[in-house]
Structures are given as structure tokens and as C-alpha cells.
Design brief:
The complex is a heterotetramer, with 2 copies of chain A and 2 copies of chain C. By secondary structure, chain A is mostly helical. Chain A is built from 10 helices and no strands. Chain C is α/β, with parallel strands linked by helices. Classes of the chains: A mainly alpha, C alpha/beta. Bound molecules: adenosine-5'-diphosphate (2 copies) and magnesium ion (MG) (4 copies). One adenosine-5'-diphosphate sits at the interface of chains A and D.
Amino acid sequence: MSIDASRIGAAIGRAAGAVQTLEQELNQADAKLGDGDTGSMLARVVGAMAQSGAADATDVSDAFGKLARAGMSATGSSLGTLISGAFLSLSKQTKGRATVDWSDLSRLLAIVLDGMIARGGASLGDKTVLDSVHALVLALADVSDGAQAATAARVSANDALHRYRDLPCRMGRAKFFGDKSVGLDDPGMLACAKLVDAVAGAETEFANITT
Amino acid sequence: MSIDASRIGAAIGRAAGAVQTLEQELNQADAKLGDGDTGSMLARVVGAMAQSGAADATDVSDAFGKLARAGMSATGSSLGTLISGAFLSLSKQTKGRATVDWSDLSRLLAIVLDGMIARGGASLGDKTVLDSVHALVLALADVSDGAQAATAARVSANDALHRYRDLPCRMGRAKFFGDKSVGLDDPGMLACAKLVDAVAGAETEFANITT
Amino acid sequence: MKKLINDPAHYVDEALDGLTLAFPSLVRDGAAGRVIRRTHPASRGKVGIATGGGFGHLPLFAGYVGCGLVDTCSVGNVFEGPNVDSCIEAIRLADGGRGVLRLYGNYGGDRMNFDMAGEMLEDEGIACTTVLGTDDIASGGPDQPARRRGVAGLIYAYKAAGAAARSGSDLDEVTRIAAKAVAATRTIGVGLAACRLPSAAKPSFDLGDDEIEMGIGIHGEPGIWRDKLRPADMIADEMVERLLADLPPAAGGEVSVLMNGLGATPMEELLILYRRVRAQLQGAGLTIVAPLVGNYVTSMEMQGASLSIFHLDAELKALLAAPADCPFWRVG
Amino acid sequence: MKKLINDPAHYVDEALDGLTLAFPSLVRDGAAGRVIRRTHPASRGKVGIATGGGFGHLPLFAGYVGCGLVDTCSVGNVFEGPNVDSCIEAIRLADGGRGVLRLYGNYGGDRMNFDMAGEMLEDEGIACTTVLGTDDIASGGPDQPARRRGVAGLIYAYKAAGAAARSGSDLDEVTRIAAKAVAATRTIGVGLAACRLPSAAKPSFDLGDDEIEMGIGIHGEPGIWRDKLRPADMIADEMVERLLADLPPAAGGEVSVLMNGLGATPMEELLILYRRVRAQLQGAGLTIVAPLVGNYVTSMEMQGASLSIFHLDAELKALLAAPADCPFWRVG
Ligand SMILES: Nc1ncnc2c1ncn2[C@@H]1O[C@H](COP(=O)(O)OP(=O)(O)O)[C@@H](O)[C@H]1O
Ligand SMILES: Nc1ncnc2c1ncn2[C@@H]1O[C@H](COP(=O)(O)OP(=O)(O)O)[C@@H](O)[C@H]1O
Ligand SMILES: [Mg+2]
Ligand SMILES: [Mg+2]
Ligand SMILES: [Mg+2]
Ligand SMILES: [Mg+2]
């Protein structure tokens, strides 16, 4: 079974369900060094994406495009814009394709990641959502079905979060205060790990992922 | 022994000492229905009066005049203005007199009271400092020396405070909310009782006044 | 409650220094520096307008000294009326030979000191009249106008009387206009959190974390009810309703509106309130002219808002539209 | 932390409604109503200036739409950059045929969206340039101007670029002026108490009852130190000292100064600070021109203040003095 529009729609629905309970936790993670809006922003953005009708799209490209447009009109925040841009990149890459194979995911995400780097101006290793995506690119390289992909994604996103927790943030204002970020989760990486967890939950039998 | 300028100076000095410790208590009493400034205002006003050189005045009229002018330049608050006006009235009434007898006090205060009523526009029974002064006028009517006067003043000012505590305030904004004032001390009456206590303390042997 | 201040004893004087340094159209005057006057006084022959009041309400009172508004302002300590000397000086400095209107809020200390100042100036032959701001509907019933305190709506009286004086009207006429403007103005305030006097150890009142007080006074005096926080629209509705239940006799179809912040309320919230107030007033058939939204009359860091309605007729409307210029309000 | 609001989901739109209703020189435009533009746009042939940013900083950004300032403003959600559609619309609506300067604060989301908007507009042939506000000295070292965020000092760039555009300068010249103004501006903020996002359960940071934070960002981002509250004069001294330790290369002897309240700080305190700032700057041999004291750039109900110094040469001084008119700042 490969990825189609209805699967994308279902995934975004699971994310939208999860983000409600994550809202205040993500706000508070962002408030430590940023402006405290990551959770409320994502709740709105993912909510809007879930309403975008992606499940009924004509093909995966269209589904990704719907998510991108919904996200872009819901926010202009850094993370939200990067996420919307990621879906736009997926839509462009999958133009004309009814489905995407699980084994394609890593390659698609690698190009997404390039776009995010170009758009946002940050680098790998800065302790941002980029590092989570990078971990996903690596982890998904050898998967061939949904269950494998789900497990790999959950493990790697969580892993990246843990690995970077005690490193300093090098991005934006936080860089100037890099040391203050040691020991704190980056809100974008935290969001990524939690949402991947929620989205992948239904795709895998492995329930006990360490958090 | 009668009242002379040095005695007035000493009395105001005692008041100035006492008012420092009363400041926050009086502020808080005023904050219940008013603007919370009675204590800070009195601390400043009585402090200025204590610096006015009343003790070195040529006669009682001059001493009272110095207190009045010091008070008038220190504040324009209701209570402060009424007090300064009271001293101005005392100064006018004692023009040319080196001393004032204790037995004169009641008569002098009665005229002071008339002036306060005329100036402030409130009435006896409104639960204001007027009612304290009125109590003093009555209590001092038959005294003939300092000790008697001190006791009578302390007892009557305290008495008035207690008597009015459970009555509604009928003055200013508080009238509209008269009931809210039931059970609360009027800050002006409270200040009067406490300051009379401090001033009269040294004039009397009676230490145990119920409060 | 934190304050960016130095010694509380110098609070007023330091702030007045800042005021006149930041706004060069204002200058300190009087023996104790407790009069704010126009740096370039009006030319002689204009009726003067002197105001005054306690401190801690900026822009009120001193900030409204300017062209087409008031000429001088005596400045008291925080929440204390101006002393008699500063009132005398404010009246003298406002005098341009055609008399002086004393226009200030209805508070005991202010009244006593302006009255005494007037008595002391009788010998100098300055003709004086008095009009007191009494717009706060929560401080007295409609039958008790004399009990009502002056709050934010006072600036409408400044504007109308200032315009009349500027146009050359005589003292009686300026006084009539001021009294008419006061009579046409109604205000109600809502408080969310108290301020603290610089010299006080505690805030002047306590409101629970989710409590508000409707009808609160400009110093935090108790209001009409205290209850849980409600949505802004419900609060706006109640304010409008209470103000419209207390119409001045000659109220017409046009009003100006002052949606005023008490000091710590963000502009965003005042705008949200204003939007609803406007809809409600329009629903009641009223047209809004020259609305004001912002911090016009405050209580230091008090959180909350007040709503003033200024009921207009053709005369007041023209006076409201006349040019005026002070650091915090400019028309034309 | 109490707020006079309705449903947080409608916070921005309700406030924008209030803004345009209260100030008729502004109007909402764009498909989602997230552009504020001048009700009477500049006549064609002027270089347009588009700005934009997250919400919750009024008067910034939308409040500076006006004559001699910026033409349009895209409006994001609270503390979120404006979305790409509103940026596209703001640029289009600012265009008067001679190109558009995008002038906004240096924040990731804002930059990405304005950049994307520019790319999407390439086909339409609107010449675009970009200048980012980077005045906050606490968000990056002097060697890291690209890391510095744009805070209150951005309004000086609005003023200078707006005056240049109004005088008929071409896009290159307006862009040069904006960049020059940004390079000549330094800001530092001090925080006393946090604000709360309408949708958040808690304030975005906690400061102890007697703590302050020097160098805080406009959203409450951590600053340089956090310590006990100090007297206002000491705080003013440190702000001045830090700003003067970071002089732009061409700094001369004249500066303008913006003593800005972050939302819940009373005018009285800003004036006390300003008085000291002025004395310190004069002590350093600097002359202050056209000082501004008030709430110009806020963070909703955040308590605290920021100080901006705008280092002037003859050119910037003339542009600062040129006429300008928006609801919150009027010159001439
Ligand atoms: N330029 C960037 N490149 C990559 N990731 C970024 C960038 N800017 C922000 N992020 C990610 O977004 C998160 C913050 O998101 P959010 O709070 O929504 O943004 P904002 O800074 O606009 O408030 C950060 O934790 C980080 O992971
Ligand atoms: N008009 C008045 N007549 C008599 N006493 C008054 C009057 N106004 C105020 N007082 C007294 O003064 C007290 C309040 O004093 P204070 O707080 O200094 O005045 P303000 O109301 O100016 O803040 C009241 O408790 C009352 O006793
Ligand atoms: Mg954020
Ligand atoms: Mg009082
Ligand atoms: Mg008072
Ligand atoms: Mg943000």
C-alpha cells in the first residue's frame, strides 16, 4: 500500500486531533526563548489544513497543495511558513502522481529540506525543525512499507529531539543567548516529534516508543 | 501651665513621629473606599509642619500660622486642607496671644469646626473627621489642665471612631455606596484618634485607653 | 507591582520635568514649579482657563494645556488636590485680562483649594468663575449631580470651553459652554487591576485574578458591582446601556465617544471595545462624531477602561471640531 | 492576567475593525482584510512603502500607515508574521508605479513571507526592494547586524523613508534612506512584567515580583541580565550607556530619542526615565532633536520600556522634520 490523498487527509486529521492537546505545552516551550506562540499557531494551522479537503484531492500533488495553501493563509510565522513551504515542495515534486511509495519519502523530504534551508536561512545543526527533518530523511531512506516508515519516523524524530536537547540553539535571537537554550527542547523539534508520533501512531504496531 | 508655642512645637513633633508608623495603616484604611493616600499625605504634611519652626514662634498665633502655611504648601488633599485650615483658624483666633489656656481649647475648636464645615461642605454625622473634632469640642468643654485635656481628647476621639465604625459614610462618593462603609473606619477619624493619642500621650498619666 | 521610579518623594517633580522636557510647548511655573502653563501664553484679551488636580492621571490634567484647550494647570501630589498656592498661581497665569474660568474635577480637596485661591485673589480683581467636571455616573445618582466626580469626560469640557475662549467669547459665555459640556457628558469606568501609589506598600485595592469591577472610580474607588471577568462585548454593552440610561435632558442624535485606557490596558483591547461600543450606539440610533480611543485620562498603571459619551448639539459639535493643539490631543 | 477581549480567534480582526472605525484615515483591504492601507492612497508616481508584521504591537505596525510614513501594512496573527497573501496584497496596494520598498522588522516568518510575495509578484513587474529593521542591540552583537531584530526604532526608518518617498525620490533613493535610518538606530528594552497571548493559558514569561530583565525582546525573549528592580535613573543610565557603547560609524552630535512604553507602563514613568536619559545624553555631548515619549511600539500589556536613539546627520534630521500624519504620530 502506498500513500494516496485519502491517507494524507487521514494523517492530517490525526495531527489536528493531537495538536489541540499539545497547544499549551508547545506555547510554553516556545516562551522559554521565543515568543510563546508555536502551539497556538500550530493548532490553528494544522486545524486549517485538516479542513482543506486534502482527503478528497484528485491526487497526492493536489492533496499536498491543499495543505500548503491552507497553511499559508493561516499564518506567516516562521515554523508555519516552513511547513506550508514543505507541502508546497511535496506538491510540486509529486505533480501528476496519484500515489507515492513509502520508499520515495526520504528522497522527497531531502528536497523539502533543501527548500527549507534556502527559505529560512538556517543551517543543519542549528537546533531547529530542520534537524528533525534531516533525521527523518536519514531514517526513511530504507523503508519499504507504512509500518516501517512509521516506526522509523517516530524513533528518529524523538531521537533528534533528545540528541539536541543539551546542545545550544544557534538560530535567530537564541544564538546570541545560545547557552540559555541548553537543556531546553526547541519548540519546532518538539512539535515535530509529537506530531510524527500522533500521525504515525496508526501506521505501526510498535506502541512503546521511548519519549 | 497653659499652651504656648514650644508646647505646640513639641506636640507636632510627637505627631510627626507617630505618623511614620501609621502611614501604611492609614493608606489602607483610605484604600477601602477612597484613593488610599491618607497616610502618605499625612506623613508628608505632619512632617512638613514639624519642620516649620513652630516651637520657636513668637506666640501661639504665630505657631499655629506656621503649621497652617506648612500644611497648605504640602498638600491640596481634602483632609490636609481641612487640617491646615483648622490651624489657620486657630492662628486667627489667637492673634496676639502668647499662650492659650486649656479651658479655651473647646471654644477655639468649636470655631475651627464651623470653618471646616463651611469649607468642606460636609455635615456632622457624615462620618468624617468633623465628627471627631465635634467629639473633641464636647469632651474638652470642662477641662482645666493639660492632663485632663489629654485624657478627655484621647477618650473622645477613640470613642467617636468606635461609635461611627458601624454607621454608613454619608460623604462624597462613599455616600452612594454608604453600606459598603459600614464596619470600616473612616480614615480621617482613624487618623484623628491615632494622632490625638500620640500627641496627648505625653500630657497624661492615663496610659491604658481602650482601643 | 513594580514601578520604574526613583524616590517616591520626587515622583511628581521628576515626571513634571520629563513632561516639560519632552513637550516644549509646556513649561513649569509657580514658586514650587507646580503650575504647568503654555510656553507661549495666549495673547492678552482671551478668557483664561485654569485647571488643576492630583497627579497620576496623565495626560490629564497638565497634558491638556495648549492652544484651544486650557491655559494653566496646578499640579498636586499623587491623588491629592493641588495646593492653594499653585491654584493661585494657575489662576494668575491664566489671566489675560478678561477673567478666568476654573475648570476641574469635582473632588473635595481640589474644590477647597481653588475656592480659597479665588478668595485670596479677590483683591487682585481677577474675575473668576467655576465649573466642576461631574461626568462619572457611578459616583452619584442622576438626582445627585453634585456628588458625581469628574473623570475622563472632563477633556470634552476642556475642548468646548477652550474653543469658546479661543474664539473670543467672554467669561460668562465660556463658563456657560463649559457647564453645558459637563452637563452633556457621561462616563463609566471598569477596573481590572489596581494601581499602587508610589509611597504605598500595596496596591490600593485587590481584585481577584478573574475579577473586574464595573463603575470603578479613577482612583479605584468601589463601583457598582464586582464579579468575574466577562467578554469585552458584554462589558461594552453594559457600559453603553448604563450611559444611555442616564441621558442628559437635551440629548440629540450625535455623540462623541472617548474609549479611554486607564493606564495599563493595551490599545488592541480599547479598539475591540470601541468597535462594539460603536455598533451599540449606532443600534441606538446615535451617530458618532470624532471618536477618541487611547490613554487620555489614566490612573498610573491601573488596568481597565472608561467610556465617555459627549452628547452633541450643533454648538458643541462645532466647538469639538475647532482647532486645538496640546501634546496629547490635536484637532485640525 | 486579565484581558478585555472576546474569542481569542477573533482578536486580531476585531481590533483591526476597531482601528479602522476609530481612525478613518485607515481602511482594511485584501481578501482576508489583513492589509491596512491609507483610505486616500498617495497619488500615483510616488514610491510605495509596504510594511507588515505580527499583531500585538500597536501602534506598530499598522498604525503608521499614513501620509509621509508607510502606505500599506500586512497584518499577521499575534506575534506571527503576515501571511504571504497579505504581503502580496500589501505590496500591490502600495505600488504607485515607481516600485515598492518592503520595510519591516527582521524576523524569520516576516522575511520568508515578504520574500515569497516578492517572488510571486515578479511577473507583475513591480520593482521591489527590502530593508529590514535591526535596531535591537540585545539580539545580536555589533558584528552580527543580520541577527538583530527590529523593534521600536523601526518607526524612525518609516519616518525617514516615508519623507523621502513623499518628496518624490525614486526607489533606490528611498531604499538608501531606509537602510541609512536603520543603520543609525539603536534600541534596548527593559521588561518588568510579561504579556499573555490571547490564546495562551499563561504569560509568556515569569519575572519575580521584584525582578526586571534588561535587554528583553519585544515578545519577551530573554535579555542580557535579569535581576532585582533598580531605581529608574540607574536603569536609564544603563540603557544609555549600552546604546552609546554601540555607536553607528557615522554618529554625529545630534540624536532623536524614543522613550517608548511597552504597553502597561504609565506615562509618568516614561517621563521620569526620559528626564534622566536626556541628562545623560546631554552629558555625553549629544543634542536631542524631536524626542518622542509614549506608547509607540508595544507588546500588548507588557510592562517595561524601550529606549531608541536615532543618530542624525543633516539629511536624516531634515527627513525627521518633514510633515507626516498618521493616527499615532503627526509631524508639522
Ligand atoms: N529560519 C528557520 N529555519 C528553520 N527553522 C526555523 C526557523 N525559524 C524558526 N524555525 C523553527 O520554528 C520554531 C519556532 O516556530 P514559531 O514559534 O512558530 O515561530 P516564530 O519565531 O515566528 O514565533 C523554532 O523552534 C524552529 O524549530
Ligand atoms: N469635605 C469634607 N469634609 C470633612 N471631612 C472630609 C471631607 N473630605 C474628606 N474628609 C476627611 O478626609 C478623609 C480623607 O482624606 P484624604 O484621603 O487625605 O483625602 P482625599 O479624599 O483628598 O484623598 C476622610 O476620611 C474624611 O474624614
Ligand atoms: Mg514563536
Ligand atoms: Mg484619600
Ligand atoms: Mg486623594
Ligand atoms: Mg511568533
